[in-house]
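#structure-requests
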Amino acid sequence: MSNVTKTEGGAPDLDVESDWNRLFVGGEWLGPGDRETITVEDPSTREPWGEVPAGTVDDVDAAYEAAVSAQSTWADRDPSERAALVDRVHELMEDHEDAIAELLQVESGSAQLKSTVEFQTAVADVAEATTMPSRAGGDIRDSTIAGKENLVKREPAGVVAVIPPWNFPLHLAIRAVAPAVALGNAVVIKPASETPVTSGLVIAKLFEMAGAPSGLVNVVTGRGSSIGDRVAGHPDVDVVAFTGSTEVGRHVAKQAVDSLAFPAMELGGNGPSVVLEDADIDNAVSGSAFGSFSHQGQVCISINRHLVHESVYDEFVEGLAAKAEMLPAGSVHSPATFVGPIINESQRDQILNYIEETVDAGATLETGGGTVDVDGVEDSLVVEPTVLSDVTNDMTAACNEHFGPVAPVIPFSDDEEAIELANATEYGLAASVWSGDRNRAEDVADEIDAGMVHINDQPINEEPDVPFGGMKASGIGRFHGDAIVEELTETKWISVQREQRSFPF
């Protein structure tokens, strides 16, 4: 760490008022020193509420050096010790729920319902990780050679890089960090620039409070353009766990593979929701509204396209527009708000452009299409919940992952056309099918190219012991349960010749 500025500033407290202007490397909280800083903005108020250091390549190297050193001894710890550390993190999260939820609201523009759901999901992920040290054992396989025993063991992969996004910053970071540590790995986190506290520094603080060895969890805040390649392609990285857009993910995966690291990638989506004519339309409308407008549509598994049978199309559009108009939208500092701000100005402008281009192409704007005024904010980031009818699959808001509170509704005439429309995208992350006939719904679900398909439910679902991930351009590998255990460990075959074997020479 000789090239790293080691200006000390003391550890932050786990709350909004704390000074988070720190890196966490080798068990030390390092102040910005002579580094540049990155301003963190509250999307609801558009006011800055903090700064973090713009980490350098030297900082990344120091983090990996610390991680390699810590991992070599951590892997030798008894599985119960590793489980106990993660369990203490679990307890600390529950003890500080209010503070963490407030940080999510202020930093990521999360409405209170969303911050609560994200927190609960993250806690469940950590609880699941406490079981992993005892589940990562090996196996004994019969041999084709007399007197031989085959032992198949699992060992920690080594150092895991975690690169989370800004939309569900805590959950999508800790779902990789907690299993990695539990399984005997060390971690280097490069948090999202928009949410460096909740996607990185909070996690470092929790592990520090839990008594983690120095260097086991490291956080280097900074811009992806400056340090991203070094994090993903470092010579000491063994697994790169990335969640984000497909465009960026392709680049990150290339960096990882060049270092012969495994790329665990959860990437973009263009989720179709298929509503068959025998569906309960009221239920489908309600679930579809939740699936499109939760967290302002900034969810990789949200409904991006509503594919609705022509016989119930008008009824569905009318119901969905009515739901959109009743949703409270505005600042997340109001407890009533369901639809809060888009994360930043460029994302907001892109969403509004998608809506405009889709209407110009012939779609009908049923409701929404603009921004919501927020008291005291000159240029609001809150986009109105928007419903578009008369949409075709090739229109801008339908063929792109719009990542906003936008619901394009596309008609179809039969199941075959619905499947064709659903699969007419490079993505394959999540989907839904609504029908009163389970067998028919399963037949349609089987034909949709997606890693996760939900019948008579919206697609924003995640459970800690069920594999989570996508097909096609939506990613590589799976998070959660046994799937993440496999990705964060290496398989080793040890054979033991227990009886003397004869050789030909």
